[in-house]
Write a structure and sequence with these properties.
Elements lengths: L13 H8 L1 H5 L1 E6 L2 E3 L11 E5 L16 H32 L6 H10 L5 H9 L5 H15 L31 E3 L8 E3 L11 E5 L5 E5 L5 H8 L3 E6 L7 E10 L4 H10 L5 E10 L2 E10 L2 H12 L4 E6 L1
Parallel strand pairs: 5-7
Antiparallel strand pairs: 1-2, 1-3, 4-8, 6-7, 6-8, 9-11, 9-12, 10-11
Length: 329
């Protein structure tokens, strides 16, 4: 209030002043002016100061504000605002996920969702919903991970203990091994000239850290060291693991699939393809985009010759406005 004299505890800040005026003013406070000079939320008040509060309709209370304010009145109002925001975020995120799951004709099981939350590192469901509401977690990604957890929990597509190591090769049995006359790979103790093929479960390319897996036919399947199936292979069939490293480029190009997720903005697909077309050494083989509820997700298949170009491409795609996630499949 203009011209009023107010008392605050020692160390009180602009934010204390804002909440003293009104909860809405405090919740939307972005800073202020003390004696006509712009100051931040954290600026402390002093006796005789003339204070003006600056607000923005897009501002929201944050948990760290509790460390800025000194008055119990301001702290109580912040806690209340955070609780209200948490409830609103939870309802919004829950409704959004239920709608997305329903569109995919997937029924949500509480036990599976609980396992998913633990897998993603969430101790509280409220924090999970907050990440969804803040668009830090993509619903399509959640659905994909949910299905993985569901399959695991219900023992779907899981190898039995009696199954052989060939279940971990993940390729069509008719797939022929590739003759390496140019010795692009050195397999275990500098052995060269061995027949090998690149595993389809992780699609290694030149430059990736790799290892070999000996098949019953005596050939070698090459996997990336971060292959999703590597831990199980090492655990159950460690005796069939051999060291491998690249020694030169034998292939001109490798096919790599990238998963891209983002806002379904006008021209977003064109902007993505432009990034790829600008690099003469990268060829786009195919693109498959699906959009829904203002978001898009899709797979890009590109041809390139090593992982340094792949990493650079991913970095560039992530800078495209509207793109939220770019991951290698």
């Amino acid at each position: 209030p203009k011209g009023d004299l107010l008392k605050f505890p020692k160390g009180a800040t602009i934010l204390d002043f804002a909440y003293h005026i009104h909860s809405k003013v405090g919740n939307q406070c972005v800073g202020g002016k003390i004696n006509a000079k712009n100051v931040s939320l954290r600026t402390e008040l002093h006796s005789g100061d003339t204070v003006e509060i600056l607000t923005s309709a897009t501002q929201k209370p944050k948990a760290e504000w509790l460390k800025i304010v000194k008055s119990s009145r301001a702290k109580a109002k912040i806690r209340l605002a955070l609780k209200e925001t948490q409830i609103k975020d939870g309802l919004y995120a829950k409704e959004l996920l239920e709608r997305r799951f329903k569109n995919k004709k997937i029924e949500i099981e509480e036990s599976t969702m609980g396992h998913l939350l633990r897998k993603l590192g969430f101790k509280e469901v409220s924090e999970f919903y907050k990440q969804v509401a803040d668009e830090k977690l993509d619903p399509n990604y959640i659905i994909e991970e949910y299905q993985k957890v569901y399959n695991h929990d219900h023992n779907l597509n899981q190898p039995k203990e009696t199954e052989s190591a060939e279940n971990f090769e993940f390729e069509n049995p008719t797939n022929e091994f590739l003759k390496k006359n140019d010795d692009v790979l050195v397999i275990d103790k500098n052995l060269k000239g061995l027949d090998f093929s690149l595993a389809k479960c992780c699609h290694p390319i030149y430059g990736d850290p790799v290892f070999g897996f000996v098949t019953v036919n005596g050939g070698i399947k090459i996997h990336r060291t971060d292959c999703p199936n590597a831990p199980e292979m090492r655990k159950r069939f460690g005796y069939r693991i051999v060291k491998a490293r690249w020694s030169g480029k034998g292939f001109s190009q490798y096919a790599i699939t990238l998963r891209v997720i983002g806002n379904d903005d006008i021209g977003i697909v064109s902007n993505i393809t432009n990034v790829i077309s600008k690099d003469e050494k990268i060829v786009m083989r195919s693109i498959n985009i699906d959009s829904h509820d203002g978001l898009f997700s899709g797979n890009l298949v590109v041809l390139l010759d090593d992982n340094s170009k792949l990493n650079m491409l991913i970095k560039k795609l992530r800078t495209v406005k509207g793109v939220k996630q770019v991951t290698r499949i």
